[in-house]
Design brief:
Layout (H helix, E strand, L loop, with lengths): L6 H7 L1 H25 L4 E5 L2 H18 L3 E3 L2 H5 L10 E7 L5 H13 L2 E6 L5 H5 L2 E4 L12 H18 L2 H8 L1 H9 L4 H7 L4 E6 L4 H15 L2 E6 L16 E5 L6 H13 L3 E5 L7 E3 L9 H19 L18
Parallel strand pairs: 1-2, 1-3, 3-4, 4-5, 6-7, 6-8, 8-9, 9-10
Helix pairs in contact: 1-13, 2-7, 2-9, 3-7, 3-11, 7-8, 9-13, 10-13, 11-13
Length: about 350
């Protein structure tokens, strides 16, 4: 199987164009929604998502809290769908993110949140889905049909939608301008050579994926993709948490994939990567350069946009790694595209 023949490859390669379409199509609505939220600020934001969409929600939490100073928390869907408890969400924004918009547990959360008085903002790819119908404010992802089990372009589209919303809400013109450059930067990120990671991870059994702040959601997403497409046991860990126990299993040659966007978190991530490399760990570093590590080339831009570019470069590498490890990235065992969690 050639890497460029997979559905995962083709769909991930579409991300730059899909983001370009989304930003133009949603601009007027997002601008209006940003004004609405400034006029009537919510008391908090609650995110609701599963899988890759929940990793996008991690990114949203860090971006909203750092740019708007607004408390943001992740909903536990089982509270509504299993325990049937109505949480007090009056005066909040429920930001729900989904590719399919069809999972029963997410719909249960949204229905109860509406009854409690929350403003429902839905970022969803399936514009005619049940979730889209429940939304007060619908921001379509415009990712187009996504057939590969492993979500790629819809994840990057989710990150772009989050950035566009927060830029409009906060009135951050520099962030909005940086986002306008994202489609061309994603195209360049897709072309970057991460074959060094393929070579290092083809025979790996375990892996940590490290990120912090805005990079943590991409670390979570990368770990998921390595598990589902490559059969590689990967665990996402915050750089702030690795010393709180997980570092105990790091030995000489233990692989770590580290994402480091150029913001306030970089100093701590670099300090950790330096320590890991000194211990003999096999550190694969995206975002910056450090001696005694393997540099994965990245595009430099606004630190909020860099995680989108990390994800795009990573997806191409993960697709190739899956094939190198003898897997079919389009047919992960025991999985299907739409997971309807109850």
């Amino acid at each position: 199987m050639r890497a460029d023949t997979t559905c995962m490859f083709r769909e991930a390669a579409e991300a730059p164009e899909r983001v370009r379409i989304q930003l133009a199509a949603n601009l007027a609505h997002v601008t209006s929604l940003g004004e609405r939220l400034r006029r009537a600020p919510p008391r908090a934001v609650v995110t609701c998502a599963r899988g890759s969409s929940d990793h996008a929600a991690t990114f949203a939490r860090y971006l909203i809290e750092t740019r708007l100073g607004l408390l943001t928390s992740s909903a536990a869907p089982s509270v509504s769908s299993v325990y049937e408890v109505a949480t007090d969400l009056a005066g909040t924004v429920l930001l729900t993110i989904s590719q399919s918009g069809a999972s029963p547990d997410l719909l249960a959360v949204v229905s109860r949140a509406r009854e409690a008085g929350a403003l429902i903002v839905a970022m969803v790819n399936a514009e005619r889905s049940p979730l889209a119908q429940l939304a007060d404010e619908l921001l379509p992802l415009h990712a187009g049909p996504e057939r590969a089990v492993a979500a790629t372009k819809s994840y990057i589209a989710s990150l772009a939608a989050i950035v566009q919303l927060v830029a409009a809400w906060s009135g951050d013109q520099s962030l909005a301008a940086a986002l306008e450059q994202a489609p061309q930067l994603l195209t360049r990120a897709w072309q970057l050579d991460w074959n060094a990671a393929v070579a290092r991870l083809t025979t790996a059994s375990n892996l940590y994926v490290i990120g912090r702040g805005l990079g943590l959601g991409v670390a979570q997403e990368a770990a998921l993709k390595l598990k589902e497409t490559c059969g590689l046991h990967a665990e996402a860990v915050s750089a702030a948490e690795l010393r709180h126990g997980p570092m105990a299993i790091v030995r000489a040659g233990f692989p770590l994939l580290v994402f480091s966007q150029n913001d306030e978190s970089r100093a701590g991530v670099m300090e950790l990567a330096t320590e890991l490399a000194a211990q003999g760990a096999d550190v694969l570093l995206a975002g910056t350069f450090l001696a005694h590590t393997t540099e994965l080339p990245t595009e430099r831009t606004h630190p909020v946009i860099e995680p989108l570019l990390f994800a795009e470069s990573f997806y191409r590498m993960a697709n190739a790694l899956s094939i190198a490890r003898g897997h079919d990235p389009d047919a992960p065992p025991h999985l299907r595209k739409v997971t309807e969690t109850l």
